[in-house]
């Protein structure tokens, strides 16, 4: 079974802190994603990566950055956490063709990190 | 501006009856649609999908219907079971400049009562 592991289940941080959310997948997937889930807004794509050291902005990249130094690991960084970044963060991985996706149903999600910024 | 909308935030159904979850989209370039299910404390898991060349796809108790002219899709669960209680997300792909990224709806919380 594919496993996508997020390092923390719950995090509480203070405004202005630098926050690292880590994600590791064990299926050698090319593509990795960071989403945030907010009530009524569904899942919104923050950043994605289709290869090591490659990254692309999603729909809401402001206030975030990412790092992908190894294929299996994709990190989300909040440079200076703010209260409006309190959310559930979900990492996902999947297989794609080249840099685009023929189908997306094989996205596998981690269990999520509930981040609270006080 | 949400391109994929699930207008019912919650739905309550009796065990054994049909659950119908609805989803509307605005982008006519979307050509692939998916449903994901999410239990508390778990990540979403893929449930069923449909391509725009079809109007129906069935997998066991789950059927997805697509009405392209109305830009509407629905997920039918028959019969509903208490284990189906979860949040269901509709998603669509196609029409994005960056490739076939998924655009998700806001989710519908389904509660199936025993």
Task: Describe this protein's structure.
- The complex is a heterodimer of chains A (118) and B (114).
- Chain A has 118 residues and is an all-beta fold.
- Helix content of chain A is 0%, strand content 50%.
- Chain A has strands at residues 4-6, 10-13, 19-21, 23-25, 31-38, 42-49, 56-57, 64-70, 73-78, 87-94, 108-109, 113-117.
- In chain A, the strands form three sheets. In chain A, strands 2, 5, 6, 7, 10, 11 and 12 form a seven-stranded mixed β-sheet that branches.
- The N and C termini of chain A lie far apart (37 Å).
- Chain B is mostly beta strands.
- Chain B contains no helices and eleven strands.
- In chain B, strands 2, 4, 5, 9, 10 and 11 form a six-stranded mixed β-sheet that branches.
- Classes of the chains: A mainly beta (118), B mainly beta (114).
- At the A-B interface, strand 6 and strand 11 of A face strand 5 and strand 9 of B.
């Amino acid at each position: 079974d594919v496993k996508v592991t997020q390092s923390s289940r719950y995090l509480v941080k203070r405004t202005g802190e630098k926050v690292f959310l880590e994600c590791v997948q064990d299926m050698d997937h090319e593509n990795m994603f960071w989403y945030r889930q907010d009530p009524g807004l569904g899942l919104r794509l923050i950043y994605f990566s289709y290869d090591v050291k490659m990254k692309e902005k999603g729909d809401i990249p402001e206030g975030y950055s990412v790092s992908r130094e190894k294929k299996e690991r994709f990190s989300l960084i909040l440079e200076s956490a703010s209260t409006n970044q309190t959310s559930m963060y979900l990492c996902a991985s999947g297989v794609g063709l080249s840099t685009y996706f023929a189908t997306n149903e094989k996205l596998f999600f981690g269990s999520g990190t509930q981040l609270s910024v006080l | 501006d949400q391109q994929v909308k699930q207008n019912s935030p919650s739905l309550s159904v009796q065990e054994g009856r049909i659950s119908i979850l609805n989803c509307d989209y605005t982008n006519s370039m979307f050509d692939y649609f998916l449903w994901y299910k999410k239990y508390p404390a778990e990540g979403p898991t893929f449930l069923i999908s449909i391509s725009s060349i079809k109007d129906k796809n069935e997998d066991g108790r789950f059927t997805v219907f697509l009405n392209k002219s109305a830009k509407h899709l629905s997920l039918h669960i028959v019969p509903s079971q208490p284990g189906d209680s979860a949040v269901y997300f509709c998603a669509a792909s196609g029409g994005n400049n960056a490739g076939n990224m998924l655009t998700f709806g806001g989710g519908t919380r389904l509660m199936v009562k025993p």
